[in-house]
Sequence to fold (204 residues):
Amino acid sequence: MTRDRISRRRFVQTGLCGLAVGAGAAWPLFRESSAQPSPPRIRPPGALEGDAFHAACVRCGLCVQACPYDALRLSGRDGTRQAGTPYFVAREIPCEMCADAPCVRACPTGALAPGLEDIRDARMGVASLSDPRSCNSFTGAGFCKSCYLACPLQDEAITMVYGPTKMKGLFTPVVNPDVCTGCGKCEKACIAESAAITVKPGHA
Fold:
């Protein structure tokens, strides 16, 4: 075998090894970029808006301790103004809409407005059918109304509207944003692997 052929063979082998190493190096990056985003963090009922909340909240954690359902938690030290503030993740443990709002009563500074007398007036966020493709009723895969049944304000905040959908279903969960409290019980109850109905936080 001539030196020329050996050189070419080594060149090809080296090139293939380089491609394999490159692919291996790129794989972790691909997996990292395809990771699921963090779920939205929703503030407790009665939370003031924007800068007013951050100015009033002293990160004491009393609202977290007062929650009888362990829904609330405190943000970690991430270097942002959210650090140490209370929140909940609807898909994990939603707000149970306690009539006496113990989290609000526990707040010593008014960051959770004491003027919230009726929990139905809370505006923690707004739910919506964010992924119709995952909704059995919308796609026609079946008739599911788990979100509707979980809503504490049935036929007010959420209704099941009958009529053909764009994906050949017959029912659509429709949220009234003027009534929805953002409690997240509909999102938690959704039977889809990735919730078809989700809550967008109502704060900045």
Residues 46 and 127 are 17 Å apart (CA to CA). The longest strand covers residues 125-129. The helical segments are 3-33, 50-56, 62-66, 102-106, 136-139, 146-150, 185-189.
